[in-house]
Design goal:
Elements lengths: L2 E3 L5 E6 L4 H13 L3 E5 L5 H12 L4 E4 L2 E5 L11 E4 L4 H11 L6 E4 L10 H9 L5 E2 L8 E3 L6 E5 L6 H9 L7 E5 L7 H12 L5 E3 L3 E4 L9 E3 L4 H14 L1 E6 L11 H8 L3 E5 L2 E6 L7 E3 L7 H8 L6 E4 L11 H11 L3 E4 L5 E4 L6 E3 L5 H14 L2 E3 L12 H7 L4
Helix pairs in contact: 1-2, 1-3, 1-6, 2-3, 3-5, 4-5, 5-6, 7-11, 9-11
Length: 423
């Protein structure tokens, strides 16, 4: 499916933010390991979260989807899986990383694998840490990458984890820590990225009854005990998905109101609103609704985006419409995402006439340039497709190929644009 976007005038959009993908993944895992049943409300039903739910089912956890909610029968951390079960995580890096630690709670060896792209995404920092804690995880093809043979136990102890590729390595260890044989002390080595996602992990753990002692983002202690407790849990709205509509208003002019967003959320992608405000947009909040207004006149900015990786591509598209240069730092780890997103930013903007340069220090600089239409192949990356749509509405004549790839995180994206008469 290809979709062509024409230039839009000023917009007036009112929508409800979809549920958070990050919170949905973590809540599914906590509920699965909990004592007793849980009802998760407003869960995100996307390709990635369905992979996590399916994988938990393969680990012996009963789950039942009912529209926007899911009922989970927790197992108290006791998992039943057949020997040499193979769990295919497809393109979901979050599922693979978070569930590798959970898999150590099985008493039978199992294989975790994924798509060809997944086999290019490093997991060495996680596997090294787990093997220090009692795991006996082996690489079945290339050292440092899936597929993995997972066996051993989760003993606990003190471990230092390299999270320079992804904070999900640390989140994976934390989520399973309540079921280790002894306390787990987690120390993050210098250079950890996307640390705001650790806030999401701790937020979910504590909501399900597990205390996490911590010192900032670098030192965490979790004591085993009763583990998670089943509960009714409502997933908050997703700032990364909302960012595309904030960006559309920023580049096209007009306003957008988005409800179901927690103004005090710990989601790192909330920083996107600070970036747009610095570029000249007006942001206001009331209850759980956030409104952004713009006259379409934007100034360039310089910002460290190491804690909000999922909005980097979108912010780069907005920056291409600004009247002065922008520079974004702390984004070198984007090369390890669903695609190499550094190259994706360069390819998208260059295809549409943009002036963009990736520096050796891992930063990207975008300068004003005349933009024009063109065809964008997102190479299966949902965020490349949606960020290209933002720029397409600003300049017109942009065709996004394989547009259906947005189902990975935001299946309703194109439907919402159609309802708003933007496609």
């Amino acid at each position: 499916m290809n979709i062509t976007l024409e230039r839009s005038g000023a917009v007036d959009i009112t929508i409800r933010a979809p549920p958070s993908k990050s919170y949905t993944h973590r809540a599914l895992i906590a509920a699965a390991l909990a004592r007793g049943d849980s009802t998760l409300e407003r869960v995100l039903r996307s390709d990635d979260t369905l992979i996590t739910a399916s994988a938990l089912g393969r680990l012996g956890i009963p789950l039942n989807w009912e529209g926007e909610q899911i009922r989970v029968s927790g197992t108290g951390g006791i998992l039943h899986c057949s020997a040499h079960t193979v769990i295919d995580m497809g393109d979901s890096g979050t599922s693979l990383r978070l569930l590798t630690s959970v898999a150590l709670l099985c008493r039978s060896p199992l294989i975790i694998t994924g798509s060809p792209r997944m086999k290019e995404r490093p997991v060495g920092g996680l596997v090294t840490a787990l093997n220090c804690l009692g795991g006996e995880i082996r690489y079945l093809e290339t050292a440092g990458f899936p597929p993995l043979m997972v066996e051993g136990t989760l003993r606990g102890g003190t471990v230092r984890v390299d999270s320079t590729v992804s904070s999900q390595f640390a989140s994976s260890l934390l989520l399973s820590a309540p079921y280790a044989e002894s306390p787990l002390e987690l120390i993050l080595l210098p250079g950890a990225v996307s640390r705001s996602y650790l806030e999401v992990t701790v937020d979910v753990m504590e909501a399900f009854g597990v205390r996490v002692d911590r010192e900032g983002y670098d030192h965490f202690i979790v004591n085993p005990g009763s583990g998670y407790c089943g509960r009714t849990y409502r997933v908050e709205g997703d700032y990364s998905s909302a960012s595309y509509f904030f960006a559309i208003a920023a580049v096209c002019g007009g306003r957008v109101r988005i409800s179901s967003l927690a103004p005090g959320s710990v989601q790192g992608d909330r920083q996107f609103l600070d970036a747009l405000a610095a570029m000249g947009c007006r942001v206001s909040c009331s209850d759980d609704c956030i409104m952004l207004e713009s006259d379409g006149s934007l100034e360039g900015i310089e910002m460290d985006l190491s804690n909000s990786p999922d909005t980097v591509q979108t912010l780069c598209m907005v920056a291409a419409c600004a009247r002065s240069p922008s520079r974004f730092l702390g984004i070198s780890h984007l090369k390890f995402k669903e695609s190499n997103r550094i190259l994706a930013i360069l390819a998208t903007l260059q295809q549409l006439g943009g002036n963009v340069m990736a520096e050796k220090d891992g930063s990207i600089t975008i300068r004003p340039a005349p933009l024009h239409g063109g065809r964008i192949d997102p190479a299966g990356d949902h965020r490349t497709a949606m960020s290209a749509a933002v720029l397409g509405l600003a300049i017109g004549g942009v065709t996004v190929m394989d547009a259906g790839c947005v189902s990975k995180s935001f299946p309703e994206f194109w439907d919402i644009l159609q309802q708003e008469r933007l496609v």
